[in-house]
Design a protein that fits this description.
By secondary structure, the protein is an all-alpha fold. The chain has two domains: 156 residues, Orthogonal Bundle (Cytochrome Bc1 Complex, Chain D, domain 2); 150 residues, Cytochrome Bc1 Complex, Chain D, domain 2. The protein is built from 15 helices and four strands.
Length: 356
């Protein structure tokens, strides 16, 4: 009888010990929420970004998103990463007219730079607005045959069998199965941290530096409707994003081989419309336009000065299309370029938080 009691006690003790060990193994990890590092100028002039409650920004999520952004594991043959087309040193673009995918495939668009995405309140991404929401914009490039040419199930399996990723996903999102939704959530968290807000013009607005006479005149050209008339689409000193994040036909073509927004909306009135890119960091992001047709900033300025082409969907803001453009003098062109280069944020492209 005593022997049976002792044996039962031992069994109970072993059970309790095993249960305790099991609970230790399943200990939950609570990610540490963090705030975006928002420049004062942005806080003063823009409303705060709206962070989805389903994807709060955390230290663990950002770290995971950064690792995934630079990892070739998302591509079919492990040859390219997000950073292949979005290089931090180039303001997260690639300086190619058309971005290259796996197997030397060539896309049909210029890679858009990535920064200040948290303030795209319209929530439409890519040149043509085909991607809605930062949490979902990374889905398509992974499976696009001209980009990563992968399969999300295969990607998930590679991540599950990786020596490091299962732990990182568990720390960022809890004890849930790795899938495409978690991957793009992590990427979105990292991309929200890509904030550019320390150019010379930002420092000028903060009364830290002065503009040269040429830069000041260039800003005046930018703002005057009788001259550059650039501010309607690209904002002003009151919009540090330097884009309206809307879609415009800016007079590139009379007919369209790429319909842009029209191909997404199905509305012929949207044909030839593309999202306005930010003017920040132009020194790093050549070539320009959705198809990279302009190799230099001078060519871009010449286009608006004397190269506008009329079409059925030309934006009403291109008010001087009948004259071919706004007709800037050589001096005004040079000064406008000087102003645009004051929007260069060298600190951003050298930020170690955004490097591999």
């Amino acid at each position: 009888m005593i022997r049976n009691c002792i044996f039962s006690f031992i069994l109970i003790s072993v059970f309790i010990s095993c249960s305790s060990d099991s609970n230790d193994d399943q200990e939950t990890y609570t990610p540490v929420e963090i705030s975006l590092d928002i420049p004062k100028l942005f806080s003063d002039k823009l409303i705060a970004p709206v962070i989805p409650s389903t994807n709060p920004t955390t230290q663990e999520g950002v770290a995971l998103g950064k690792k995934l952004f630079f990892d070739t594991i998302l591509s079919n043959d492990n040859s390219i990463s997000c950073a292949s087309c979005h290089d931090p040193a180039k303001s997260f673009t690639d300086n190619l007219q058309f971005s290259e995918g796996v197997n030397n495939s060539l896309g049909t668009r210029n890679s858009m730079p990535l920064f200040n995405l948290a303030w795209n309140f319209d929530e439409r991404f890519a040149w043509d607005g085909k991607e809605f929401g930062l949490e979902s914009q990374a889905f398509e490039p992974v499976t696009n045959h001209l980009e990563m040419n992968s399969d999300w199930k295969e990607v998930a399996n590679k991540l599950k069998n990786h020596f490091e990723y299962p732990t990182l996903f568990k720390q960022a999102f809890g004890d849930v199965e790795i899938d495409s939704t978690l991957v793009v959530k992590a990427l979105a968290q990292f991309e929200r941290t890509l904030i550019s807000g320390n150019s010379k013009f930002d420092r000028f607005l903060n009364n830290e530096v002065q503009l040269t006479p040429e830069e000041q005149n260039g800003f005046n050209v930018f703002m005057e409707e009788s001259k550059g008339d650039c501010f309607h689409c690209h904002g002003s000193e009151n919009n540090p994003l330097w884009t309206d994040n809307q879609f415009h036909n800016n007079g590139l073509d009379e007919t369209f081989t790429d319909l842009g927004l029209g191909a997404i909306s199905g509305d012929p009135n949207d044909n030839g419309k593309f999202r306005t890119p930010s003017l920040r960091n132009l020194a790093f992001t050549a070539p320009y336009m959705h198809d990279g047709r302009f190799a230099t900033l001078d060519e871009v300025i010449d286009h608006y000065s004397e190269g506008l082409k009329n079409s059925a969907t030309i934006d009403p803001l291109m008010k001087k299309v009948a004259q071919g453009g706004v007709g800037l003098t050589d001096q005004d062109k040079a000064d406008l370029k000087a102003f645009l280069l004051t929007l260069t944020d060298t600190e951003f492209v050298n930020n170690p938080n955004f490097q591999k």
